[in-house]
Input
Amino acid sequence: MTNANDKLKLLLTDIFMMEEELYLDENGPEQIEGWDSLATVSMAVALQQEFGHHMTIEEVSEIHTIGDIKEYLRSKGVEL
Amino acid sequence: MSKQAPSPFTNHHDAYSMGQEGKEVWLLNGMRQLTEWHRERCMEYDRFLLSSGADNNHIQRLDQLPYLPTSIFKKFDLLSVDPEQHPKLKTVQSSSTSSGVPSRIFQDEATSYRQKKSVQSIFDSFLGTERRPYIIFDAMETARGKNSMSARGAAIMSLMGYASRFYFVMDLCDGQLVLNEERLIEAVEAAKESGDFIAYGFTYILYQAHEMLQRQGHSFEGFGNQTFLIHSGGWKTLQNIAVDKGSFNDAVSSVWNISPEQVIDFYGLVEQTGVIYPDCPYGNKHVPYYADVIIRDPHTLQALPTGEVGLIQLMNLLPLASPNHSVITDDMGKIVGVDDCPCGRKGKAFQFAGRAPKAEVRGCGDVYAEEQGK
Output
């Protein structure tokens, strides 16, 4: 696991208030109790602070799972 | 059954760039299509139109489009999508009104996306596009929600796209909102570092918080002209204690040493989620190109000309999950001009003129105040 992936895992487990074992690419709001609308915004703000990329409305609306978050970061050049 | 709903957006990025004459034919066509879309999918809506004799084929003007009273969304769950095919369907609901029954509007993913685009397009025009620290005069619990959201929560969330960081500076203690001064100071420090910030609170909550800050002698300095304090939710409670818009703006802006014009009131209702009406510096509310406002005589329901006060009918092209695309409210207002506001925004400009005399206390902020026993 890369440093960026460690960082992302720490960030998402904190924001979504989830157990580490839920940090799986296929998991989304249905599996993660704490992933609500406010947590989605918190995630977007935190990604901006941590990785330096503002998410647009279009980009946020395409996030449905942890895998989508990773895919978004990869598309911005972050190595995960 | 029509497969595609009309797109609410053209290639105009600015919500107010289209003049009234230019938009009317396009909007009328879209509104007729959207009426048909809902009619084919929502049996109750179709029955309502049949019983009222509305004939979509003979509509030539926007003021001939059928509309539902907002009160209908308190009595019925009107749905134009199959919940089984839309597992992420959400509800947005108003605070319970004095009748005790909230309005419930449904949102599928496509509607939610359209609403976010719309709000962004409107707020961009008033706030610019820069992200700033966002101070929220409310408790975090208000904005939490997976499948449903209150009007207050929705309003808070609508500004999140402008936040570089956000701070909820109130706590919920025994059902009462209490200012958390430590968090406020933390937020103020972040705002000072940035030079500008945005803040949001329900009108009555924002007033209460600033009245307290003033009483405690707080005065914050060093903020620029891209700082805005935004509020919504209703004026009735404040009017009852003789606080008008001018004194409200003075009270709030003086705490932050900014111009009263940087305090922005916006009008909006759950039944028109996604289209909000902030005041421009000339005190007018502007209608984006994918929406329209008609003022109607409260007795005859005939459309009224510019300058006459009547019931506000609101319509927009956004909603796909509930037939709330054209509603008549029990709010009063008047059109004050078309394409001619000195602020430069095109389309109709209107002003809010209070609640209809027999309407219940309904502004969500007013309901909050009522619940607090004010």
